[in-house]
Task: inverse folding
């Protein structure tokens, strides 16, 4: 890339960044106990906790699920992973979990937040077979056509697609389109990892207010979430709360002090792992 192109890219990324507005990835980072967030994100996170007191517990359970699910898929021999809406780097990372089983596993992290991508490029994409690129889940064809992605992910071979804790930030129509577009490009034997906020008794208005007007949060019934796995066979225990799915996995995916206990029903986050049928 030329110096002029580098400068134009930097300007474009700076224009997209606004620390005064809460950001989904940085709110999640705060809930996980991270340090990559600003005042607006912390304030939004506190409003979310006021509406959903176990929000941080849910976030940690979701991250535990991701780690357990990736290890499960790696045990099935899958060596390439596409993490859409990856967010800010969090330990354990997807490639750490996969490479604990398959040392040469390849991972592409994709996010539309320039701050998350910059952090991922600096902290995660530090070796062969791991990249972080900017891309919008609502433009799946553009993501899949990215030459940098094609250099790491071979869609003619089985791949694991991660859509973890991100579909509920889209309308039902957008989420259906996103899942459908990526699912269509996955060959048989590929895996799909999803966690999604579901309908629950917590007042939706309180949660929506926490994120502000610029972020839409849409919980969905279990039946609608299950439909994302059409054409896939769900791994045991099926579509269940995030902590319940992770709890049945035999591997120690996190050190014992960090393991998350099952959360109460109001947690409202369901998760599943599916294998695409022939």
Result:
């Amino acid at each position: 890339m030329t110096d002029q192109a580098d400068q134009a890219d930097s300007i474009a990324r700076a224009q997209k960044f606004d620390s005064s507005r809460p950001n989904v990835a940085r709110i999640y980072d705060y809930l996980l106990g991270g340090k990559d967030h600003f005042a607006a994100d912390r304030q939004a996170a506190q409003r979310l906790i006021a509406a959903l007191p176990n929000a941080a517990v849910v976030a940690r359970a979701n991250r535990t699920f991701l780690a357990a699910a990736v290890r499960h898929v790696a045990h099935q021999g899958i060596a390439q992973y596409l993490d859409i809406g990856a967010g800010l780097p969090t330990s354990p990372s997807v490639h750490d979990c996969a490479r604990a089983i398959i040392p040469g596993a390849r991972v592409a992290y994709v996010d539309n937040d320039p701050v998350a991508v910059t952090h991922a490029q600096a902290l995660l994409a530090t070796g062969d077979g791991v990249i972080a690129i900017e891309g919008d889940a609502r433009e799946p064809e553009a993501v899949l056509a990215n030459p940098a992605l094609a250099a790491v992910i071979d869609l003619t071979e089985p791949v694991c697609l991660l859509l973890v804790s991100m579909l509920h930030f889209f309308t039902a129509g957008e989420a259906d389109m996103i899942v459908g577009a990526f699912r269509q490009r996955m060959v048989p034997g590929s895996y799909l990892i999803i966690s999604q906020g579901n309908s629950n008794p917590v007042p939706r208005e309180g949660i929506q207010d926490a994120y502000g007007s610029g972020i839409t949060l849409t919980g969905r019934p279990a039946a609608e979430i299950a439909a994302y796995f059409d054409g896939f066979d769900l791994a045991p225990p099926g579509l269940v709360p995030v902590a319940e799915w992770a709890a049945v996995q035999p591997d120690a995916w996190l050190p014992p002090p960090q393991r998350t206990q099952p959360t109460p029903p109001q947690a409202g986050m369901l998760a599943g792992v599916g294998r695409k049928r022939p």
